[in-house]
Amino acid sequence: MIDVCAKSSSRRHLRVPLQGGVLVAQKDFYAPKHPELEQIPNWHVIKMMQSLKL
Description:
Elements: H1 7-20, H2 42-52
């Protein structure tokens, strides 16, 4: 399995949304940016959220 983004960057990316409460992402892997998190590609957000799934 390929590591999509480095562990250090994924922790940094998750810190901001999880402090604010709820985070949603449209399942669009080709969207250039996440609507609320402009510095992070949408597919990174989707994959990080999938990794948190129980």
